[in-house]
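Re: that chain you flagged

S.,

Sorry for the slow reply, it's been a week of failed gels. I finally had a moment to sit down with the sequence you sent. For the record, here it is as I used it:
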Amino acid sequence: MKPYFLLLFIPLFSVLSCQRPSQNTSNNTVAVSYSKDLNMDSLDGRLLLMFAKNDKTEPRFQINGGLKSQLIFGLNVEAMSASDQINFDNDVFGFPMPSISDLEEGDYYVQALLNVYETFDLASGHSVKLPMDNGEGQQWNKSPGNIYSKPFKITVGKNGIQDLAIVMDQVIPAIKAPEDTNWIKHIRFKSEKLSAFWGRDMYLGAHILLPKGFEDHPEAKYPLMIFHGHFPSDFGGFRTVPPDENMKSDYSERFKVEGYNILQQQEAYDFYKRWNEPDFPRFLIIEIQHPTPYYDDSYAVNSANQGPYGDAITHELIPYIEKTFRGMGEGWSRFLYGGSTGGWEALAVQVKYPDEYNGCFAACPDPIDFRSYCLTNIYEDKNAYYYQGDFQKTEIPSHRDYLGQVSSTSKQSNHLELVLGDKSRSGQQWDIWEATYSPMGGDGYPLRLWDKYSGEIDHTVADYWKENYDLRYIMERDWDKLGPKLKGKIHIYCGDMDNYYLNNAVYLMEDFLENTTDPYYDGEVDYGDRAEHCWNGDQENPNHISRLRYNSMYIPKIMKRIAESAPIGADLSSWRYK
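Prediction finished late last night. Pasting the structure tokens below so you have them in one place:
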């Protein structure tokens, strides 16, 4: 899951005032075009219209699933030219208000943006239109090449919005690639497997943290640690100088901690010092860039809709990195770890490629048993948005705090995604699960697990998910073959008050692992008391500290695993220099 979703604050129930503010009921129309000066023509994409009640920042940066989200409306455009005007009227779906007619009278700052789609001619024979990642990690509001208008102020009166015209005349600029340092190297690698699937050249990237003494010890070959997670702009959490003395302290609303920006820099510097200590094992650590046209991250497995990312990472990218930077290149010397999306990936990759890796540390993983797909059982429930009784229904929560106070619902977050893009093209959380786990539909896009508007579940699609991506089910189904290969390799950690109810699926996985595995899985499942999302197994430090220590906290367990499992004759010395 994307970490910034932890900031959601949406009320589960609306509070009705005695008198509803005045709203416009006219036939509202907003015409959007783009400037000929952009020298662009025949653009496809998702056209987004946004309204904000404040000008603290541009409306495009104020759209989210939270209580403070501003308004957004969306529709598809095809072959849009500079001479075209695209009209938004009362029928265009929006979030959190479904229609422009719901706008109350008053002042707004308005802005339009086109999330540009490109055409992909897939190996399957389908042609699909999707937003190509342009180095930003699939962020529609800052993706290079997207066009937008500068925000300006309007007044909505009792007659609504009449004859409002918006011209998009700005282009989001390219992002500068990170530069190599003595410690951190960056690669961009063309994948033949992915290029064949997508019908064009497709690339993977990686940021590699080198061990101390890498240049001075050319004889050494190193074990590999793979930190899975969301799109990394550079290698994070590593800093060679103390915190900036001139940095102004900020406040983390999420963690209720003052000066969290300074604390982050201090932790990064502390890791650098630890990395250089004489008793610290010498490893290669990599963070992988594998955004897809559907999300900032491929989920590191093969997929009908996204292609063979699992094979591309495991059989193309990682061997290339090991060859280039003197990795050992053997399964016993590779380890996986990560949290949230990265937690699911660490476990899934270990299960899908049991011989290629020697242990996974999966923290707060995305749902690993689809009987608890957050709070939905996709096999038995009929609807993903409501608990249904004979005479009433209640919306299903999707986010809570450590006290259980609910702040968003499944319907709300899915409806925002529906505005941002149809056909699983929003670039957000529920849609990427669908793009990863679903079969491909007849139009070349992922089949929906449920109707995005109503929440009605398609159990045929659910059965496909079960057979291919329900990790608990797959492990139980195939344990006679997987068990001997996974023994001692599975480690799962989760807070028992995970914001997204992810602990529920972990309970189901633990029940299988602890009570029914033969051979016994011989790993670890642990929980943090009242811990929220991103808890990663640290029983001594608060969440806001331990989440900054992923790159060092599993080292003792990895070293223990190496000592117990390395094959006879394995190199256990060249990389243990002082």
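What I noticed first: The mean pLDDT is 94.

Talk soon,
D.
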